[in-house]
């Protein structure tokens, strides 16, 4: 554990394997046939994780995850559509902001940050406003780590003949989502989260029929997933300069994902990380913000220690000096901090992280010995 190579316990960028980083040591030409094969293989593997090859296209897009969320809304929601945005944290608010900026009509439904949206809520809202065409949902709301009931909400949305857009950025690859059972028009994720690639590209799983109908919807040239897909389908190439090193790293990360045992094993590892973190922090008297029933094994929000000597910035710096990067809290009402359980880390690293946290809190005289 060194400061030069810290362990990132954050929701992305996160700790990657040396092998994944090593895969970036080659310069690829964007016309290179082998690079095109790399892109095709990445898309194929991503679709397989979702069991979506028959129903959906995988459309990769340059940029951070938000670029892909914006592209999905801009491409798949027609300008006269109306989106119901379900909010229980910062990423839900960002979805609403995207609709606002893009000029797509929308309404919001907000619950408290420790309250999942329910299928019954969604049903009531859909019945009350027949003008709604789409529902947008955050699967795991990373601002707290809360898990929303995707399967139930997807069923209600489909039953009412509406279309679902899912931001599964922080859950895809770790929590099971099966496109054969969960109906959706778009599901969005990115390279640098549970797949343990490096950040720099997102991807949208777009229902084939929905994407085919979406020509001309988009307000933007660069964010148009219809064009991005059409060009790639025709040429095998990205429309504009591809993030070549990011694609190569994701390809290598996906090989390791399969070698590890795929989704079930990745899920188990993160769940074990989460449990170690909850148990060892509880032993220090540090309480988690969410009840375990709605806690996703992705990132955990902890209440800040109740001491006048605690201050996040100093705490963060001291833990960082011991080789671990934590994440600030994002709640407005209560003082919290967050610790991620995703990335190329296991129970050993989680134990070491909590030991470092304990040591720092003793040094700060926040904890008694
Ligand atoms: C990480 C994340 C995003 C994307 O954030 P970027 O900073 O644009 O990568 C979007 N939604 C959720 C739920 C996330 O966790």
In short:
41% of the residues lie in helices and 16% in strands.
Outline the structure in words:
With 369 residues, the protein is of the alpha/beta class. The chain has two domains: 7-13 and 262-363, Aspartate Aminotransferase, domain 1 (Alpha-Beta Complex); 18-258, Aspartate Aminotransferase, domain 2 (3-Layer(aba) Sandwich), CATH 3.40.640. It is 41% helix and 16% strand. It contains twelve helices and 14 strands. The strands form four sheets. A seven-stranded mixed beta sheet has the order 2-10-9-8-5-3-4, with helices on both faces. A three-stranded antiparallel beta sheet has the order 11-14-13, with helices on one face. It has a two-stranded parallel ribbon with strand order 1-12. Helix 2 (33-50) packs across helix 9 (244-260), helix 3 (65-76) packs across helix 4 (90-102) and helix 5 runs parallel beside helix 6. The longest helix has 22 residues, at 262-283. It starts with 6 loop residues before the first strand and ends in a 6-residue tail after the last helix. The relative contact order is 0.17. Pyridoxal-5'-phosphate (PLP) is lined by residues 11-12, 64-66, 69, 91, 138, 142, 167, 169-170, 190.
The N- and C-terminal alpha carbons lie at a distance of: 24 Å
Q: What proportion strand?
A: 15-25%
**If classified by CATH, what would the architecture of the largest domain be?**
3-Layer(aba) Sandwich
Instruction: Write the element-wise H/E pattern from the N-terminal end onward.
Output: EHHEHEHEHEEEHEEEHHHHEHEEEH
**Helical stretch count?**
12
CATH class of the largest domain: Alpha Beta
């Amino acid at each position: 554990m060194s400061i030069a190579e810290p362990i990132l316990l954050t929701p992305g960028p996160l700790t990657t394997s040396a092998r994944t980083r090593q895969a970036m040591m080659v310069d690829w030409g964007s016309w290179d046939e082998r690079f095109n094969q790399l892109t095709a293989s990445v898309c194929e593997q991503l679709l397989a994780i979702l069991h979506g090859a028959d129903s959906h296209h995988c459309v990769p897009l340059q940029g951070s995850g938000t670029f892909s969320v914006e592209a999905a809304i801009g491409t798949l929601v027609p300008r006269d559509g109306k989106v119901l945005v379900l909010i229980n944290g910062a990423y839900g608010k960002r979805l609403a902001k995207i609709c606002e900026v893009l000029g797509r009509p929308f309404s919001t439904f907000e619950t408290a940050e420790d309250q999942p949206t329910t299928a019954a809520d969604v049903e009531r809202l859909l019945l009350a406003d027949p003008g709604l065409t789409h529902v947008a949902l955050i699967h795991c709301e990373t601002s707290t780590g809360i898990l929303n009931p995707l399967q139930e909400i997807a069923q209600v949305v489909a039953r009412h003949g509406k279309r679902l857009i899912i931001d599964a950025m922080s859950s895809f690859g770790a929590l099971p989502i099966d496109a054969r059972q969960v109906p959706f028009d778009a599901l969005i994720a990115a390279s640098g989260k549970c797949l343990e690639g490096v950040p720099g590209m997102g991807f949208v799983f777009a229902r084939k029929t929905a994407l085919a109908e979406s020509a001309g919807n988009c307000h933007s040239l660069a964010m148009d997933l219809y064009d991005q897909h059409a060009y790639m389908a025709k040429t095998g190439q990205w429309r504009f300069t591809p993030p070549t090193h990011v694609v190569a790293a994701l390809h290598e990360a996906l090989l390791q994902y399969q070698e590890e045992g795929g989704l079930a094993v990745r899920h188990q590892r993160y769940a074990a990380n989460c449990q170690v973190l909850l148990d060892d922090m509880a032993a220090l008297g540090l309480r988690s913000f969410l009840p375990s029933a709605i806690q996703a094994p992705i990132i955990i929000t902890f209440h800040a220690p109740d001491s006048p000597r605690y201050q996040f910035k100093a705490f963060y710096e001291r833990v960082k000096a011991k080789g671990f990067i934590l994440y600030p809290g994002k709640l407005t009402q209560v003082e919290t901090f967050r610790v991620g359980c995703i990335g190329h880390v296991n129970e050993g690293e989680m134990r070491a992280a909590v030991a470092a946290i304990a040591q720092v809190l003793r040094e700060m005289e926040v904890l008694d010995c």
